[in-house]
C-alpha cells in the first residue's frame, strides 16, 4: 500500500527553504503516475497479466443514470461524472477474470493537482470494506457478476472541491499495478447542501432548488421610489462553466488543500471576480465610456463573461455591481454553495467609515461637490452565501455577505466577506471578515453641513433613516420580490437598534460625535417632494410640499437642484437650478410645482437614466435649513419577446425580439443580445440605425436542449439608450 503515488523525475519548480513540496494550487496540473510501482527488484518470470487486471470502468455518468440523478447534477452540460461530497455514488469495474476477495487486493486512488499528498487530502486511497461510514471515504461491493463488481463509494463530507483523477490499484507480491491515465473516469466533486455533515448544508428542499439549482435569477435595480426588475441568466450548468469556475480558484492561487472550505473559497473568489490587483474576471467601469468593451447594462448573464475569461485569461470589460454579483452567484451555485443576489437601496459608500455621510452645502443651500466625498448608491448588489462558520462563535452561521464589487481593500486586496449577516444585525462587527464595512453600508446618518468662513462646521440637518432603507432578494420558487431588511437591521428607533449600534461602536466602528457642532432642527415645518412618473424623452414635474404646523407665518427661500447621476450617487452634472420664495401660511400646507423639460436633460443622460434631486429651504425668520434628497429614474421602454410555433426539446423553435424607438432621434450602432439557459447560447446582432419611432424586429432560430420551465432574456444597448430589457417565460415540452 503506497502512501504517496510515485512521481517520476520531472522538472520540478524550485523548492524554497520552508517547504519540502512546492505549493499545490492548480487543479489543472497533473503528475505522472507509474502503472507499475515495484517494491524492489522484479524477478525475471514476473508477468503482470497473471494478476487481476482492470479491463474497463463504467462510471454511470449520463444525466439520466443513477449518480447524476441522486446527486442533483443531471443539469450540468458535461460528459464526466459529477457528484456531491458526503453522499455515496456507484461505479462498476470489469476485470479480466472474476474477482476473488481471498486472494485479490485492489483499492481506488483519487488524485488532484501535481503534488498529491495523503495528509493534504490531495491523494486519497479508498479501501474496499464491509460498511460505509457517513461522511468518510470508503467503498463497498454491492453487486458481483461474472468478471465485474459494482462499488458504492462514499466521499468525505469535507473533501476538496474540484476535478479528481481516478486510478484503480492492484496489489501483487512484487509491486502495485495501476490502470493507465484515463480522463473519461475523471470525477468532479462538489459541495453538497443535501448532506447534513457538509458545511453548506441547507435543510429546506425548496430553498436548495432555488439557491443551488435555479439557473436564472432577478436583479433589482432602479431606485427605492421606482424599483426596476431584470432577469439574469446564471447558467451554472452550461458547457465549460464548471471548468471555468474551477479555473478561478487556480487563478486566485488557492491552495488545493483549502478548497474544501467554503469560507476560504468565498474570500478568494470575492477578490478574483474583479480585476483590481489580480487581473480577475471583470474590469469595472463607472464613467459611462465603454470603448473596446461591452457596456455593463448590455450583459444578459454570466456565461459569456466566464467563458471569455476562461479562454483569454484577461479581464472582461466592463462590469458594475450587478454584473460582479451575477457572475459571483454563478460561481457559488456552480460549485454547490447556496447563494442569492441581494440588492440594498440607498447603500452608503462612506469613505472614512464613520457611519456618517457628510453632504456639504454652500451659502445658497446648494450641494458643494468639491467638499462632499461620501456618496449614497441608488442601489448596490452583493451576494449572500450559505454556510456554517466554525471560525466564529455559535449563532453566526447561515447567510454570509460576500461582495465582488471593488470598493475598498481588505487585507490589501479589493475583496469583501464573508461577513455574517447575523453579526451585522447585532453589531458584532469584530467577527471576520469586513463586517464593519458592510455595517456602514446599511447603517449611517446623512448629515448636511455648512462650513462657516472661520472654518467651523454647522450642522444644518440630519437624516437618520435614508441609508439602507430597503434590502431585497428574489423569492424562493417564484419571480416575486421579498424584503430582507430585517435580516440586517432592527426596526428604526427600536431599543434593539440602539443596542446593536452601541455594540458596533464598542467593537470599533467609528461614529463621529456631533457635540462640538450645534444642531437644533426646525421642528414645526415639514418639507417633502415628489417626482412625478417620467417616461424617457418626455417632460415631467417635481412637486414640493411644505406643512407649516406652527401658528407663525414663515417665508422659505427654496432651492431645487436636479442632477444627472451615476447609480453610485456620483454626480455627472447639474441640469436644473430653480429658486423661489415660498410663503408658508400658519397651520396649513402649500405645494409648488417645478417643470422639468426633456430638452434640459436628454443631452446629458448616462447609463441608467437616473436623476438626483436636492431640495433645500432656509426659513427666513429662524435661519434654519430643511434639506432632503431623492433619486428618481426615467421609465425606459422594454423589448418584446415572442415565440412562434412549437416549443419542444430538440426541435427547431423560432424566437422574435421587437423594439420601438421612443426617442425623437435616430439610435445608432445598436447591439441586441438574446440568451436562455438550456434553450439557446447567447446570440448577438448589430443594427446600424433605428430611426425615431420605428420598430425593429429580429428573428432567431434555435434548438432548445432542456425540457421544463425556461426563461429567455434579451437586452438592447447603444450610446443613447441603455438598460433596455425584455424577457419571456417558456415551457419547453418533452419530445
Automatic annotation (TrEMBL):
<feature type="active site">
    <location>
        <position position="380"/>
    </location>
</feature>
<feature type="binding site">
    <location>
        <position position="445"/>
    </location>
    <ligand>
        <name>Ca(2+)</name>
    </ligand>
</feature>
<keyword id="KW-0007">Acetylation</keyword>
<dbReference type="Pfam" id="PF00927">
    <property type="entry name" value="Transglut_C"/>
</dbReference>
<feature type="binding site">
    <location>
        <position position="497"/>
    </location>
    <ligand>
        <name>Ca(2+)</name>
    </ligand>
</feature>
<feature type="active site">
    <location>
        <position position="403"/>
    </location>
</feature>
<keyword id="KW-0865">Zymogen</keyword>
<comment type="similarity">
    <text>Belongs to the transglutaminase superfamily. Transglutaminase family.</text>
</comment>
<protein>
    <recommendedName>
        <fullName>Coagulation factor XIII A chain</fullName>
        <ecNumber>2.3.2.13</ecNumber>
    </recommendedName>
</protein>
<dbReference type="InterPro" id="IPR014756">
    <property type="entry name" value="Ig_E-set"/>
</dbReference>
<feature type="binding site">
    <location>
        <position position="492"/>
    </location>
    <ligand>
        <name>Ca(2+)</name>
    </ligand>
</feature>
<dbReference type="InterPro" id="IPR036985">
    <property type="entry name" value="Transglutaminase-like_sf"/>
</dbReference>
<dbReference type="Pfam" id="PF00868">
    <property type="entry name" value="Transglut_N"/>
</dbReference>
<comment type="subunit">
    <text>Tetramer of two A chains (F13A1) and two B (F13B) chains.</text>
</comment>
<feature type="region of interest" description="Disordered">
    <location>
        <begin position="1"/>
        <end position="32"/>
    </location>
</feature>
<dbReference type="GO" id="GO:0003810">
    <property type="term" value="F:protein-glutamine gamma-glutamyltransferase activity"/>
</dbReference>
<dbReference type="InterPro" id="IPR036238">
    <property type="entry name" value="Transglutaminase_C_sf"/>
</dbReference>
<dbReference type="InterPro" id="IPR013783">
    <property type="entry name" value="Ig-like_fold"/>
</dbReference>
<comment type="function">
    <text>Factor XIII is activated by thrombin and calcium ion to a transglutaminase that catalyzes the formation of gamma-glutamyl-epsilon-lysine cross-links between fibrin chains, thus stabilizing the fibrin clot. Also cross-link alpha-2-plasmin inhibitor, or fibronectin, to the alpha chains of fibrin.</text>
</comment>
<keyword id="KW-0964">Secreted</keyword>
<dbReference type="InterPro" id="IPR038765">
    <property type="entry name" value="Papain-like_cys_pep_sf"/>
</dbReference>
<feature type="binding site">
    <location>
        <position position="443"/>
    </location>
    <ligand>
        <name>Ca(2+)</name>
    </ligand>
</feature>
<keyword id="KW-0963">Cytoplasm</keyword>
<dbReference type="InterPro" id="IPR008958">
    <property type="entry name" value="Transglutaminase_C"/>
</dbReference>
<dbReference type="GO" id="GO:0005737">
    <property type="term" value="C:cytoplasm"/>
</dbReference>
<dbReference type="GO" id="GO:0046872">
    <property type="term" value="F:metal ion binding"/>
</dbReference>
<feature type="active site">
    <location>
        <position position="321"/>
    </location>
</feature>
<dbReference type="InterPro" id="IPR050779">
    <property type="entry name" value="Transglutaminase"/>
</dbReference>
<keyword id="KW-0106">Calcium</keyword>
<dbReference type="Pfam" id="PF01841">
    <property type="entry name" value="Transglut_core"/>
</dbReference>
<dbReference type="InterPro" id="IPR023608">
    <property type="entry name" value="Transglutaminase_animal"/>
</dbReference>
<dbReference type="GO" id="GO:0072378">
    <property type="term" value="P:blood coagulation, fibrin clot formation"/>
</dbReference>
<dbReference type="GO" id="GO:0005576">
    <property type="term" value="C:extracellular region"/>
</dbReference>
<keyword id="KW-0808">Transferase</keyword>
<keyword id="KW-0094">Blood coagulation</keyword>
<dbReference type="InterPro" id="IPR013808">
    <property type="entry name" value="Transglutaminase_AS"/>
</dbReference>
<feature type="domain" description="Transglutaminase-like">
    <location>
        <begin position="313"/>
        <end position="406"/>
    </location>
</feature>
<dbReference type="InterPro" id="IPR001102">
    <property type="entry name" value="Transglutaminase_N"/>
</dbReference>
<keyword id="KW-0479">Metal-binding</keyword>
<keyword id="KW-0012">Acyltransferase</keyword>
<keyword id="KW-0356">Hemostasis</keyword>
<dbReference type="InterPro" id="IPR002931">
    <property type="entry name" value="Transglutaminase-like"/>
</dbReference>
Amino acid at each position: 500500500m503506497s502512501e504517496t503515488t510515485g512521481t517520476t523525475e520531472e522538472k520540478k519548480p524550485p523548492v524554497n527553504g520552508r517547504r519540502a513540496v512546492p505549493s499545490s494550487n492548480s487543479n489543472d496540473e497533473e503528475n505522472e503516475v507509474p502503472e507499475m510501482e515495484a517494491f524492489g527488484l522484479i524477478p525475471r518470470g514476473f508477468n503482470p497479466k497473471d494478476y487481476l487486471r482492470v479491463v474497463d470502468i463504467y462510471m454511470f455518468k449520463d444525466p439520466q443514470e443513477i449518480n447524476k440523478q441522486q446527486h442533483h447534477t443531471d443539469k450540468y452540460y458535461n460528459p464526466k461524472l459529477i457528484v456531491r461530497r458526503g453522499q455515496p455514488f456507484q461505479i462498476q469495474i470489469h476485470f479480466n477474470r472474476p474477482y476473488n476477495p481471498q486472494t485479490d487486493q485492489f483499492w481506488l486512488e483519487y488524485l488532484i493537482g501535481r503534488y498529491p499528498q495523503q495528509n493534504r487530502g490531495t491523494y486519497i486511497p479508498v479501501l474496499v470494506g464491509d460498511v460505509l461510514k457517513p461522511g468518510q471515504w470508503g467503498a463497498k461491493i454491492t453487486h458481483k457478476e461474472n468478471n465485474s463488481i459494482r462499488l458504492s463509494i462514499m466521499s468525505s463530507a469535507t473533501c476538496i472541491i474540484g476535478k479528481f483523477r481516478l486510478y484503480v490499484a492492484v496489489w501483487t507480491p512484487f509491486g502495485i499495478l495501476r490502470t493507465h491515465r484515463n480522463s473519461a473516469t475523471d470525477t468532479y466533486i462538489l459541495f453538497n447542501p443535501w448532506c447534513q455533515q457538509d458545511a453548506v448544508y441547507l435543510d429546506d428542499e425548496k430553498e436548495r432548488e432555488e439557491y443551488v439549482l435555479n439557473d436564472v435569477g432577478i436583479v433589482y435595480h432602479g431606485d427605492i421610489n421606482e424599483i426596476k426588475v431584470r432577469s439574469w441568466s446564471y447558467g451554472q450548468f452550461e458547457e465549460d462553466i464548471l471548468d471555468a469556475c474551477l479555473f478561478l480558484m487556480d487563478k486566485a492561487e488557492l491552495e488545493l488543500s483549502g478548497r474544501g472550505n467554503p469560507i476560504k473559497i468565498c474570500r478568494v473568489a470575492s477578490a478574483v471576480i474583479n480585476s483590481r490587483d489580480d487581473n480577475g474576471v471583470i474590469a469595472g467601469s463607472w464613467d459611462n465610456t465603454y470603448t473596446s468593451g461591452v457596456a455593463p447594462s448590455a450583459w444578459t448573464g454570466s456565461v459569456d463573461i466566464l467563458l471569455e475569461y476562461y479562454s483569454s485569461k484577461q479581464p472582461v470589460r466592463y462590469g458594475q455591481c450587478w454584473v460582479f454579483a451575477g457572475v459571483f452567484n454563478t460561481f457559488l451555485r456552480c460549485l454547490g454553495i447556496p447563494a442569492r443576489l441581494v440588492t440594498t437601496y440607498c447603500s452608503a459608500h462612506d469613505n472614512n467609515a464613520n457611519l456618517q455621510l457628510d453632504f456639504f452645502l454652500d451659502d445658497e443651500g446648494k450641494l458643494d461637490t468639491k467638499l462632499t466625498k461620501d456618496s449614497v448608491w441608488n442601489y448596490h448588489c452583493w451576494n449572500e452565501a450559505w454556510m456554517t462558520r466554525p471560525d466564529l462563535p455559535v449563532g453566526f452561521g447561515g447567510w454570509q455577505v460576500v461582495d465582488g464589487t471593488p470598493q475598498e481593500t481588505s487585507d490589501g486586496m479589493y475583496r469583501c466577506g464573508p461577513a455574517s449577516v447575523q453579526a451585522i444585525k447585532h453589531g458584532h462587527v469584530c467577527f471576520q471578515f469586513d463586517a464593519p464595512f458592510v455595517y456602514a453600508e446599511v447603517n449611517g446618518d446623512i448629515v448636511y453641513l455648512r462650513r462657516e468662513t472661520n472654518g467651523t462646521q454647522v450642522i444644518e440637518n440630519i437624516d437618520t433613516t435614508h441609508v439602507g432603507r430597503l434590502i431585497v432578494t428574489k423569492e424562493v420558487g417564484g419571480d416575486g420580490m421579498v424584503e430582507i431588511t430585517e435580516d440586517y437591521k432592527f426596526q428604526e428607533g427600536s431599543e434593539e437598534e440602539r443596542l446593536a449600534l452601541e455594540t458596533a461602536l464598542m467593537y470599533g466602528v467609528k461614529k463621529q460625535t456631533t457635540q462640538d457642532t450645534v444642531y437644533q432642527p426646525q421642528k414645526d415645518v415639514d418639507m417633502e417632494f415628489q417626482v412625478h412618473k417620467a417616461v424617457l424623452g418626455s417632460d415631467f414635474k417635481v412637486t414640493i410640499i411644505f406643512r407649516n404646523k406652527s401658528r407663525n407665518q414663515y417665508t422659505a427661500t427654496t432651492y431645487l437642484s436636479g442632477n444627472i447621476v451615476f447609480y453610485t450617487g456620483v454626480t455627472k452634472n447639474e441640469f436644473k437650478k430653480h429658486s423661489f420664495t415660498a410663503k408658508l401660511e400658519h397651520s396649513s400646507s402649500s405645494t409648488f410645482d417645478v417643470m422639468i423639460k426633456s430638452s434640459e436633460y436628454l443631452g446629458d443622460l448616462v447609463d441608467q437614466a437616473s436623476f438626483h434631486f436636492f431640495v433645500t429651504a432656509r426659513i427666513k425668520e429662524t435661519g434654519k435649513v430643511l434639506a432632503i434628497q431623492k433619486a428618481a429614474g426615467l421609465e425606459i421602454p422594454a423589448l418584446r419577446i415572442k415565440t412562434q410555433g412549437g416549443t419542444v426539446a430538440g426541435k427547431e423553435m423560432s424566437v422574435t425580439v421587437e423594439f420601438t424607438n421612443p426617442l425623437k432621434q435616430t439610435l445608432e450602432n445598436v447591439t441586441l443580445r438574446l440568451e436562455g439557459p438550456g434553450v439557446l447560447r447567447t446570440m448577438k446582432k448589430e443594427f446600424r440605425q433605428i430611426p425615431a419611432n420605428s420598430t425593429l424586429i429580429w428573428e432567431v432560430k434555435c434548438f432548445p436542449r432542456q425540457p421544463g420551465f425556461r426563461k429567455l432574456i434579451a437586452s438592447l444597448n447603444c450610446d443613447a439608450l441603455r438598460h433596455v430589457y425584455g424577457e419571456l417565460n417558456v415551457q419547453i415540452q418533452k419530445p
